[in-house]
Amino acid sequence: MTTTTAPPSKPSVRRTAATPKAGMTRKRREALAAYAFLAPDLLGLLAFVAVPMVLALGVAFFKVDGFGNYQYVGLANYKLMGSDDQLWASLKITAIYVVSFVPIAFVISFGLAMLVRNHFRGIGWVRSAFFLPHVVSLVVVGLIWQFLLVDKRGAVSKLLAPFGLGDVSFLGTPSLALGTYVVISVWFVMGYQMLVLLAGLKDVPKELEDAAQIDGASAWQRFRFVIWPLMRPTSFFVVVNSTIGAVTGLQAFDLVFVLTKGGPARATSTVVLYIYEQAFTFNNIGYAAALTTVVVGILVLCTGLMFAFTKGGRFSED
Amino acid sequence: MSATPNLHRPVSRRSVLRGGLGALAAAGVGGPLLTACGGDGGSGGDGKEMSFWNFYGPSDDGGPQSKWFVDVAEKWNANNDVKVKLRYIPGKDYLNGTTLQTAFQSGEGPDIFLISPGDFLRYYNGGVLQDLSSALPAEAKSDYLPGLLEARSVDGKVYGLPMEIEPLAMYYSEAAFTKAGLSEADLPKTWDQTLAVAEKLTGKDRYGVMFETLPGYYQNFTWYPFLWQGDGTPIKDGKVAFDSPAAVQALKFWKDTIQAKVAPRKALGDGGGDVVSNLGSGAVALQQSGIWAVADMKGKAAKFKYGIIPLPTPDGGKPATDLGGWAFVANSKGKNPEAAAKFIAWALGSTDAEGVERQRQWNTVVKTNVPPRKSVQAAADAKGAFEQGVLKKFVDEIAPTGQPEPRFPPEVYQPIADAIQACQLNGSDPGKAAADAAERIDTFLKTYQGAPIS
């Protein structure tokens, strides 16, 4: 670049003269590079998420038959929701799933992150072991758990048989199926969340902890007053991300689709599965689009509330 | 030009849902928009090529069923200007996925495709099924067994040609019976006997009997015979008739098998239709499934000894079974629907020696079915296809008691599916479940305007 070849005798003049031509400061160059790296993903998001989302808003006002015919119906699709018992049932199922899965996954992942933050022998192996489930496709996860949870003959039934629980069907009993999904989902995401939280923990300055220790703080106090507050931004990200994932994500669809198809007796019919059913079984694509906008609205509201209560996870001094 | 332009390949569930709830919009709405800028890259190409979407071939394993499809297409292409181009879609995606739906929504449906009775009215009412009548000679029509074409007809016009008949029966494991000290004399004929025998067959590692437990129209398909045995039906003369003693007792029978803990709440493998994974693995002793399992067992568990019996009936009930089977249909909005109709009539309906042989191959060599046409049955008989064993029993005893699978749209089969699920797996009261389902079906029928439901 021209600036670097400038004669040392008149650096300041040459540099200021050259800057507009060379175009960029280091900061701008970095920003541009960042955008370049983000571009493929941004384009994908735009094409496959943003644009369809906006289109869904429009389609929600139409009756769409699945064969390319559109008929304008105004707010009829939204009005229909009031009397749609199965919609409310599926929203309730989703809510139960979210409020059980999100906190459990967070606590366990945080615990794991604390466990593996310090070096010890075999730490790489331990971290990989926790992370491994996340690498596997959820369809495969479904098949693995299907195998483990087979009625009577599965590994889980064999383990429980001595306690007289060998006959329990985890995926075939309505009262147990959703809980089973919570367990499988936690198992699936804990490695990923652990990794994110671990990155947050690495940013907690060791000096602060050392100083607290010298001041006589116990392990719990060091966690409560040093680590926990400094982890707020990371924790916030994990919780919000995990909530959105639990409502719309792969666990709420792929797993259910592979394992129980919303059964037994609709016990695992999550709202995303219900939307899928409306769109692709009943051909009610307009109604499905309307449902989608409502679910997105609920998610935006939930995220907004979380922002409000935690100040977006920022430190109060910011 | 490719028959299946990549532009319109449906967005996969995974990629879409990962991005959030843009799913439906991407799949459902993106279509027309893409079409608008994508020009007329129709699935039918330039009218000289017809796309044929199916879940048999050409598959990666290149098995006999795949080969049959490939051979049929090649044979046609050798003698005709308008060529057939096969596109294989894995069975799970075809049956429960979004591939077909998104294609039709975006006006890019295939020219020829396979359809089950459960989807017939949806596609017919959507106006995309081509009338095959003009391509079908009278002698071909009269060659089909009674009822089969009617189930795929509206106002006397035929819209789909069945490729097979798949009756349901109970499969039993000889080893399980012997081990439980039971003999052939103990094979159940009634529901009560089934429950009693199943209890004897249930052990630490095995269930006595199994019916499908996964929700979906396959489960409905397997349950209808028990409804019919008590002379029940979901719809009669265009009006709901589901709230009947026959429905209540059939719901109760399935519920009883679970409550008595003699049947699993969740099947292995691909579910109730998968005899290899369930009966074949020894996990159940008595399993309801279709005739296709004969070929499956031959291919994957050839040494396993089993037999079949007709579906047990309630006391005083009449024997009944459900006759499933997929049909070839043509897209009336495709590029060349007349040629597609001709292809279908030729592939499945030809009454010359070659056509009969093609059908015989499909129905008794590469797959086990009851042939849907009299001439094909005769040809199969001449080769001794049904002379002995389970296939003989299927043809002689079971198939004659069958009714074609009903062509209920989702608005009818979903309330029934919910009733079955609620009683079977959630201990609901059959009387209330039947009444609830009837009410929902009634609400739908009052505003329904499509072709007759039967």
Automatic annotation (TrEMBL), chain A:
<feature type="transmembrane region" description="Helical">
    <location>
        <begin position="168"/>
        <end position="192"/>
    </location>
</feature>
<keyword id="KW-0813">Transport</keyword>
<dbReference type="InterPro" id="IPR035906">
    <property type="entry name" value="MetI-like_sf"/>
</dbReference>
<feature type="transmembrane region" description="Helical">
    <location>
        <begin position="234"/>
        <end position="253"/>
    </location>
</feature>
<dbReference type="InterPro" id="IPR000515">
    <property type="entry name" value="MetI-like"/>
</dbReference>
<dbReference type="GO" id="GO:0055085">
    <property type="term" value="P:transmembrane transport"/>
</dbReference>
<keyword id="KW-1003">Cell membrane</keyword>
<feature type="transmembrane region" description="Helical">
    <location>
        <begin position="285"/>
        <end position="309"/>
    </location>
</feature>
<keyword id="KW-1133">Transmembrane helix</keyword>
<comment type="similarity">
    <text>Belongs to the binding-protein-dependent transport system permease family.</text>
</comment>
<dbReference type="InterPro" id="IPR051393">
    <property type="entry name" value="ABC_transporter_permease"/>
</dbReference>
<feature type="transmembrane region" description="Helical">
    <location>
        <begin position="32"/>
        <end position="62"/>
    </location>
</feature>
<feature type="transmembrane region" description="Helical">
    <location>
        <begin position="128"/>
        <end position="148"/>
    </location>
</feature>
<keyword id="KW-0812">Transmembrane</keyword>
<dbReference type="Pfam" id="PF00528">
    <property type="entry name" value="BPD_transp_1"/>
</dbReference>
<keyword id="KW-0762">Sugar transport</keyword>
<keyword id="KW-0472">Membrane</keyword>
<feature type="region of interest" description="Disordered">
    <location>
        <begin position="1"/>
        <end position="25"/>
    </location>
</feature>
<feature type="transmembrane region" description="Helical">
    <location>
        <begin position="95"/>
        <end position="116"/>
    </location>
</feature>
<protein>
    <submittedName>
        <fullName>Multiple sugar transport system permease protein</fullName>
    </submittedName>
</protein>
<dbReference type="GO" id="GO:0005886">
    <property type="term" value="C:plasma membrane"/>
</dbReference>
<feature type="domain" description="ABC transmembrane type-1">
    <location>
        <begin position="91"/>
        <end position="306"/>
    </location>
</feature>
UniProtKB/TrEMBL annotation, chain B:
<dbReference type="InterPro" id="IPR006311">
    <property type="entry name" value="TAT_signal"/>
</dbReference>
<keyword id="KW-0813">Transport</keyword>
<dbReference type="InterPro" id="IPR006059">
    <property type="entry name" value="SBP"/>
</dbReference>
<dbReference type="Pfam" id="PF01547">
    <property type="entry name" value="SBP_bac_1"/>
</dbReference>
<dbReference type="InterPro" id="IPR050490">
    <property type="entry name" value="Bact_solute-bd_prot1"/>
</dbReference>
<protein>
    <submittedName>
        <fullName>Multiple sugar transport system substrate-binding protein</fullName>
    </submittedName>
</protein>
<keyword id="KW-0762">Sugar transport</keyword>
